[in-house]
Amino acid sequence: MEQVKDFFKLLKKYVLVLILVPIVTVLVVYYPLKNLPKQYVSQGLIATGFTDQSRAILDPLGGGLQETRLMAQFGNLKSQMMLKRIWDALSYKLIIHDLSTDAPFRSIKGIKEYKAMDNKDKLRAIALFSRKLERMEPMNATSTYEDWLNGLLIAMKYDEGALKKALMVDRMDASDLVSATATTESSELSAFMVNTYVKIFIDYYTSQSTQSQTNNVEFLADLLKQKKEEVDSARQKLQSYKIANDILNLEEQSKSIQTQKQTAEDMLVLLKRQVSSLGGAIKNIKSNLSPSVRAYAEAESSRLNATLVTSRERLNQLVALKYRDLLAPPNPGLERSIDSLQKRIIAQGAAITDAAAVSPLTGKEAQLQQLRTLQVEYDQAFYSQSVIQSELTNLDSRFKKLVPLDAKVQTYTFEIENATKEYEDVFTKYNQAIMQASANSKLTQIVMAVPEGPQPSKWKLFVIGAGLGTFVICLVVMFVLWYMDDSINSPVRLANITNLPVLGALNKLPGNNIDLRKLWDGDQREKMKRFKDLLRSVRFEIDQELAGKKILAVTSMRPGEGKTLLSISLAYSYAMINKKVLLIDGNYEDPTITRSVMPEYYVEDVLKNTTDSPRLTAQTNVLGNYGGDVTLLEVSDEKAIKDKFAELQRTYDIIIIETPALSALSKAKEWFIFADKIVSVFEAGQSIFNGKKLVVKYFQNEGDKFSGWILNKQTMVAAPKKGK
């Protein structure tokens, strides 16, 4: 809060600056601003169609446009409107108009370098500008003539930079419209500039969009044709490979072979079981026949079985033929042949039985008949196994041949799928490009710019703004100066910065050179009244600090801060309340008190530890010094000095010692040894930095012995109070 008060005090001090500077600024800008030319504004509107939702039917990308996409479209449109070639074309249009008409917007007669142009020069310039306009080319800076004409554009304020300042382009809020607004010194020029600019840009935008879309469609058409050829080529490769390798349908062929293998494996398992069971039955029957019967039966059988063996071999051939193709439909003729042959074998077996009716086997006919029947079935099952096993081997071989064929077919199929997908993607983009080309947004100028009246003059606002701006700048400058100022001008700030108590403040006395001998004369009393009041407050605070003690040391951080004035003033103030005061000039480097008072006795004489040292009485008020490069302890030893001060304390009520400044810290510290309290004078307007911080640290370490600061030479002093 104190700092804020200081800032307002600073403003009060420089109040004239705050008033006069804005007034002078207003007077300076008043006449130039008052005579500003009138301004004419014209505006044209362009409908872009970007937000037209009716186009979403044909444009698959147009439905549900997001705001970000719209912003990107309008940003791209504005970027194109800012192209140099657009502004160059507008420059050419304007200069051609002014050179080819008797009523130009801006005359070249006022331009010294170009006012001498005759009709021939103008026609030549018009021809060049027209050629540049047709080709949408910039001026060639390397050509002397074109560079000269470019200077004409600049002089007429038709160059790109000047036109961009005069003509503003922007989207109107969140609408579909783009505005072009021109501000010039002529209503006709503003309208012409807007309409010409809009027409140039719409023509350029339409041409570029059409060309871009045409190129896009042609590119996609060529790409679509290429992708179609790739699809056809991939299909032709697959077809040729299938024909070359007799492939109809690999998947169906593979399934068929797997089914045949499963059927054959099932039949093979069944036949193995049948062979095993029939073999066991035959073995059991043979075991029931006696050896002689078996021998006879076998001998007889070998004679009669020749025909039977032939029939069995034929049966095995028919069975092999039956199982050659497991998945083939049944063959009725083959089945009848097998049945007929089985009946013949049984009949031949019966003939063998009849032949054995007169043999020793009589009575065993049933068992022999059963044995022959089982033998036929056993042979049929046994030989069928080999046929089926051979078929399984054949099926495995056929399946293995399909694996590499299938891998190659899959490779070709994958190529076809990829080529087809690419073809479909390109086809989709091709259709989209065609639809977008047919549904492309067309820029349309829906509002033509027309000449309008002048704009209200704003010179008064500019003048007021200049005054207010200058006032604010002055405030900012003063605030910066105040903020950067680390000087101390108040007791509260001194106490806050040093963290030490402040006993009071003394105002600055008028004049540069103060005569200490006449300071308290009668003619000075009115000037000293404020100083006296503040001094009394300081005296009271010192009395509270001394609390019955008598020796007070007065010092300062550097010479010239006012410790001599304070010491003399305190001595005078104590004398006014009937105190016995002894003022000691302990500043050997600058004995100002000694030179001003011219005392009878000197410190060096009084403090000498000799028998002839003078004895002081209460009538003696001041002890001077002879000066020179000496210190207190060089005058006498510490014990003698303590004894002398003890003696002086019995004579005087208070002893005030002006010590050297703390820039000579060691000399001042010798006096502090014998002092009960220390006060330091601090000159207002100074700051604490570098070596002064060490002095502050020293006072903080002294503790209660350091009573506090006395702020001196303060320009504006509030009611005195002790603060920390």
Uncertain stretches of 5 or more adjacent residues: 54-58, 60-65, 719-724
List the strand order in the largest sheet: 5-12-11-6-10-7-9-8
Inertia-based shape: elongated
- Judging by the overall fold, what is the CATH architecture of the largest domain? 3-Layer(aba) Sandwich
Helix tally? 22
Oligomerization: single chain
The biggest beta sheet is recorded as: 8 strands, parallel
- Estimate the mean pLDDT confidence: 80
Q: Give the radius of gyration.
A: 64 Å
Instruction: Kindly identify the CATH topology of the largest domain.
Output: Rossmann fold
At the fourth level of CATH, the homologous superfamily of the largest domain is P-loop containing nucleotide triphosphate hydrolases
Fraction of residues in β-strands: 5-15%
Pfam family, one: AAA_31
GO molecular function, one term: protein tyrosine kinase activity
Protein name: AAA family ATPase
Keywords: Coiled coil, Membrane, Transmembrane, Transmembrane helix
Give an overview of the whole structure.
The chain is 62% helix and 9% strand. The protein is α/β, with parallel strands linked by helices. The protein has four domains: 58 residues, no CATH class; 177 residues, no CATH class; 187 residues; 224 residues, Rossmann fold (3-Layer(aba) Sandwich). The strands form two sheets. It has an eight-stranded parallel β-sheet, sandwiched between helices. It has a four-stranded antiparallel β-sheet with strand order 2-3-1-4. β2 and β3 form a beta hairpin. α4 packs antiparallel against α5. 24% of the residues are buried. The C terminus is likely disordered.
